[in-house]
Amino acid sequence: MSDAVLRLSHLNKRFGALQATRDVCLDLRPGEIHALIGPNGAGKSTLIGQIAGSLRPDSGSIHLAGREVTSLSVAQRARLGLGRSFQVSSLAEPLSVRRNVMIAVQALQGHSFRFWKPVNRDESLLAPAQEALARMGLTRRADTPVAELSHGERRQVEMACALALKPRVLLLDEPMAGLGPEGTAHLTELLEALKHEVPILLIEHDMDAVFRLADRISVLVAGAVIAHGDAAAIRTNPHVREAYLGE
Ligand code: ADP
Ligand code: MG
Questions:
Q1: What is the CATH code of the structural domain delimited by 1-81+169-188+195-247?
Q2: Centroid of ligand 2 to alpha carbon of 139 (angstroms)
Q3: Among 95, 112, 207, 216, which residue has the least CB neighbours within 10 Å?
């Protein structure tokens, strides 16, 4: 209980008449992948927005490593270790994979006094970038311009950007989307290894990947968690089968 790295307590969020988040309680523990599943419009991205800080809950609280972050900004949460995979559009196409990850580190550090210094020689940027690239299996591609990467490799770069910031937790919103079977299998392997270093809150539509990866699963329907358990329990839960798996 007390060792949760991330804890959501009784979160509520409305968009006008629509209750997008209903009394959601959820936690993420060290070493685990906790998957959040649910049909389209269930409120998964809205929940991620509240955790990351781009959306403010109407009520409830969010704790990161024991500290309440409910009213902190996105940047403050990021500095406290809330990692989120970057959007594809945030990568600089002409620049190398390594340079992109270094820029992400620099952006988080926010040290404007570094601006005079060439980014590519700054050890404090290079070291975490190299380490993150290795963890995402991208060392071989470090000098390649992002423009030349496959969709799956871009996803890996986005994750390397998040990892280079040494997050305490990682939020991933549909990382497998558009990857195809091979890319999905590869990313599944990477996440399986990664979870021991940084616990992952995973939103994913690919149910094979979810059942393979998740230590625990929470099922969100119409903004509320309707079921919670390990893969075996969720697979056989009659409410889940009815509400989500379409049976
Ligand atoms: P999911 O990620 O599970 O598909 P979302 O969190 O994106 O679901 O959306 C949950 C519900 O909230 C949907 O009905 C969606 O239309 C609505 N919604 C999401 N964001 C907003 C917003 N900024 N303003 C109004 N309604 C929103
Ligand atoms: Mg979504």
A1: 3.40.50.300
A2: 31
A3: 112
Instruction: Give all strands of the β-sheet with 200-203 in edge-to-edge order.
Output: 82-84, 169-173, 200-203, 33-37, 216-221, 224-229
Distance CA 25, CA 78 (A): 21
CATH 3.40.50.300 maps onto the chain at 1-81+169-188+195-247
Ligand 1 centroid – CA 40 distance (Å): 9
The Cα-based distances of 227 to 70, 223, 224, 243 in angstroms read: 24, 12, 9, 10
pLDDT tens for each residue of 145-178:
999 999 889 989 999 998 988 899 999 988 888 8
Closest CA to ligand 1's atom 16: 41
List the alpha helices (DSSP H) in 32-169. 44-52, 74-79, 97-109, 123-135, 151-164
Residue 170 three-state SS: strand
* 219 Cβ closer than 6 Å to some ligand 1 atom: no
What ligand has the least distance to the C-alpha of 174?
2
Please give the structure tokens belonging to residue 106: 């620099």
Ligand 1 atom with minimal separation from the 47 CA:
6
Q: Per residue in 119-150, pLDDT tens?
A: 567 888 999 999 999 999 999 999 999 999 99
CA distance 238 to 247: 9
**Ligand 2 mean position, distance from CA 17 (Å):** 19
